[in-house]
Amino acid sequence: MVTTKTQTQDNPIPSVLIVGNYCHDVLLQGGAVVAETLGGAASFISNVLTGLSVSFHLTSKVGLDFNYPLNHNPIVVQTSKTTVFHAYFDLASSENAHQDRVLKRVEACDPIYPSDLPDRRFDFGMAVGVGGEILPETLEKMVDICDVVFVDIQALIRAFDKNGTVNLVGLKESGFYHLLPRLKFLKASSEEALFMDVEEVRKWCCVVVTHGKDGCQVYWKDGETQIAPFRANQVDPTGAGDTFLGGLVAGLAHGFVVPDAALLGNFFGSLAVAHIGLPKFDLRLLQRVKDEMQRRKLHCSCCLERRDDGLIFTKTSGHDEFHASLASTKLVSTCSIQECQQDLPRSPRTVDQVILPQYNGQPKLLVSSVFDEPM
Ligand SMILES: Nc1ncnc2c1ncn2[C@@H]1O[C@H](COP(=O)(O)OP(=O)(O)OP(=O)(O)O)[C@@H](O)[C@H]1O
Ligand SMILES: O[C@H]1[C@H](O)[C@@H](O)[C@H](O)[C@@H](O)[C@H]1O
To answer: Which reaction is this enzyme known to catalyze (predicted)?
Structure first.
């Protein structure tokens, strides 16, 4: 268990603070809009935490034009519009060849100020901005009020040109570098990792680099480990990194060692890419995942010596079996959903006709996640 200062016997799941704006995502291809969805790392992460019964407080801002009803009400700013991103899936150029899509921020909601954060302590804090809304002073307040802080590097290194196109700046030049020693986890995609010196940063905090269909790599001060992926039928990469981070943090909140939590991250990341926009998890699948998590916890509880901060970075026995059991939850869920689907009338899905490019350059038809490929 990641034991933190505020954790008690009655409240074994850590309290989590999520900070980052919701946004509207518009996916475009060939000049046409192919989907409009709720976006923002905060929405993808809260989706996973809710699914895995981890409660959280969310600080997020939107405008009056915000389109989606939510349980965790964001702060509505009367004078600002909701952040909007346009994702162009066919605008790759030699300048941004490392990216899978060109992103433009076409509206930006207000920043999140330190005074917007609640006046109480949290075990975990997640800085997960998408449109530059997290300021250095906001992150500073987060490290003051949260015992363990997780940061998605996209919250720190995005810069926007006059057309709103997202560019990345070096972490050293971001204005956040001085706070690294006070963070516990920094997550970056392989594209974003090019904008930092992993060897230097890992001396201060754990760095998790995600590699799309190849899973992720965890680097800490004196070691590193690779975490195996899960197979998926990718239709839209949006939110994979966010959903991964949700799985990682939910795993740590449930008391898992870092490699097992990262495995949960990979698992949820693989579910996310099989959906357009925010994935709606099948309840039976979630129950099976929770059952497997419970089994894994029982297996681990007797054999661990924790560091002072409660974190264990090395793989423990049974890690590979945990991977196999999580993979099998997909298999069962896929079968049962497909059986159910046969009983339902098929409504037309316009997005079925759309093709988005994949990481490997192979276009695939967009389909719903119920057609996930089992391991
Ligand atoms: N095609 C895929 N198949 C299986 N798992 C995937 C795939 N793509 C992503 N994932 C999972 O999701 C995680 C995050 O994906 P990725 O590295 O693409 O993040 P990202 O680039 O930050 O995503 P995004 O910016 O689109 O939210 C990966 O580490 C992996 O576990
Ligand atoms: O909704 C998405 C998502 O949160 C991504 O992580 C982010 O990169 C995009 O900017 C955003 O539009």
So the answer is: myo-inositol + ATP = 1D-myo-inositol 3-phosphate + ADP + H(+)
